[in-house]
Amino acid sequence: MYARPHRQPFLVAYDIADHKRLHRVHRFLLGWQVGGQKSFFECWFTAAELAHVVRKLGALIEPAEDRVHVFQLDPRMRTRCYGVARPTPGQAFFLV
User: Is 93 a residue whose pLDDT tops 70?
Assistant: First the structure.
């Protein structure tokens, strides 16, 4: 039996100037997100996955025109949802 990799929660936010690059970044992050909307994605990454995502995002954007922020969230904090927002159930992570 092997140990499961430790995942940490992150918030990935972006502002992409070009429509084609925007679509590529959005499509790439859809594969990693467990929640979010528009240009904000909640993701759970291992250290290796985070490194891969950061490298890939760096290749997808134009640094002089685009902006991507990756914020590490504190998993001990309680989720607060307002309006139609729903908390992410548990800490399940699925890749299909």
Answer: no
| Owner of token pair 């922020």 | 69
Average pLDDT of the chain to the nearest whole number: 85
Rounded to an integer, what distance in angstroms lies between the CA atom of residue 14 and that of residue 9? 17
CA-nearest of 4, 13, 22, 3 to 73 is 13
Closest CA to 10 of 37, 39, 46: 46
In the chain, what are the domain boundaries? Answer: 8-72
Tokens 């995002």 belong to 57
- When mean pLDDT is compared over 15-19, 36-40, 90-94, the highest value belongs to 15-19
Architecture of domain 8-72: 2-Layer Sandwich (3.30)
The pLDDT of residue 83:
79
Q: Which residues contact 27 (CB under 8 A, 6 or more apart)?
A: none
